Amino acid sequence: MHVHFLDPYQPRTSPIHAMDGRAKFLLTVAFILTVSLTPMAAWPIYILLFALVLSVEILSALGIWYVLKRALLALPFMLAAFPVIFTVGQTTLFSFSLGAWTLTAHSEGLERFISIAVKSWLSVQAAILMAASTPFPELLQAMRAVGIPRLLVSMFGMMWRYSFVLVDEALRLMRARAARSGQSSQAGAKAGGSVLWRARLTGGMAGSLFLRAFERSDRIYVAMLSRGYDGEVRSVPLPPMTSATWAELLAGLACLGLLLFSGILFWG
Amino acid sequence: MHHSIEVEHLSFSYPDGHPALVDVSLHIAPGEKVALVGPNGAGKSTLVLHLNGILSGDGRVQVCGLEVGEKTLGRVRAAVGLVFQNPDDQLFSPTVYEDVAFGPLYQGLGPEEVAARVAAALSAVSMQPYARRVSHHLSVGEKKRIAIATVLSMTPEVLVLDEPTSGLDPRARRALIHLLCDLPMTMLVSSHDLAMVRELLPRMVIMDEGRIVADGPTQALMQDGRLLEAHGLEIP
Questions:
Q1: Which pLDDT tens digit goes with each residue over A226-240?
Q2: How remote is the C-alpha of A21 from its chain's centroid?
Q3: What is the ipTM of this complex?
């Protein structure tokens, strides 16, 4: 029994998939930076940024729906920004009372909330595009090549590698529990137990999963040491970027820089 | 009078399209002890997981006179005790006692009965002194015995074991064989340990590539070196 749903990579043939991982990584980071540095309520810039990410989605052959559906992941995090509607600004939109409190919504706050929501939605789309069009090992290599600390990169790598093992293990635990979740033939016995008891069991399962992950990490570390690991992660260096990749990278950066500049100039 | 296990024309494919079981039919009478052997990937585990409805394929599976399906899942799982290959999967509670008590507690039995069942199950595997121990710190042989106790406490009619002797040292293996020999219920044991099969299980079913390729008395099949070799097995 194995899980594959964790792996975001979607194999396709497209110019985006074929692009050098380093350029893709840098452009994604630059896009997210641009989005977050663009001033509040710079709507035309948002639309242009959305057009940019949308065209990459079309080019990538992943399907717009695939990316948009996954981007819904950002929704719960947007809720964290919800209170700004009531805490920022002077212009009153409406107010209502909730028990002892009176909440007043402001138009500046609303503007800021929508900006934050749009920004996080755009950033998540860019991250999804990168993860879905680059095999994870290539992404790790790219991160290492552009100077992300090696320890951090190898932690990402381990997390990715062993999350599959851990989820498999959790699934096997749950299967073994299901196999023993029976019904008595005795009259009057109600199967299932109390909610509290089941919660405690689930806690026990989570705990034993944690202990095993902990022990496994020890074993992995010993196996690494026995093959000569000395705390330094080494890897074969990537070939230098081609001039075409440089052109793609610089064009992308220039485009993002222009958008950011005009955003700050007109709305900043 | 019903069979303990009745499987008729069962086929199953995994979601990636790989066929794991192809038209499998198998009948096991009450009290019979049967070995399920075959190379890795032959479909043994897949077949075993059908017996209590964890997987469900095309075909008919009846256990202790109960049709395995959505409605009977609870009764079926109480009737068939499944012991997984890796005891760590089966032991998820903080203490041995709680692990063994899981099945009866889930069934909603009263506290005295649960305590009695746990005591009986632990004594059946000679592990009474371990009740308050932490499952996590036991040896593999001890964990296997506790894993068997966790299903014995449900007083199942059929005991299904997946690779019971794997990873055991000779003494733990010997002790386990004695234990299984003493248990009275119907037994289906999937294993690569043909020496144990010869000693313990009078009937043998050989699977390969999702099909049952031979079914007969263990002594007779063990004589047929060519048959065993053709399906990746060795005469012990």
A1: 776 777 666 677 888
A2: 17
A3: 0.72
**Residue B43 and residue B59: Cα distance in Å, rounded?**
15
Here the tokens at position B2 are 């019903």
Give the chain A residue nearest B53 (alpha carbons): A179
**Is B93 touching A (CB cutoff 8 A)?**
yes
Give yes or no for a contact between B4 and B157, defined as CB atoms under 8 angstroms apart. Answer: yes
Could you say which DSSP state residue B157 is in? S
A186 interaction partners in chain B (CB closer than 8 Å): 107, 109
Tokens 């406490």 — which residue? B153
Alpha helices in B153-236 (DSSP H): 170-182, 194-200, 218-223, 225-230
**What is residue B16's three-state secondary structure?**
coil
State pTM to two decimals.
0.72
Side by side, the strands of the sheet bearing B19-28 are B19-28, B5-13, B58-63, B66-67
Beta-strand (E) ranges in chain B?
5-13, 19-28, 33-37, 58-63, 66-67, 80-83, 158-162, 186-190, 203-208, 211-217
A186 at the B interface (CB within 8 A)?
yes
B106 to A172: CB separation less than 8 angstroms, yes or no: no
Q: Show residues of chain B in contact with A169, CB under 8 Å.
A: 89
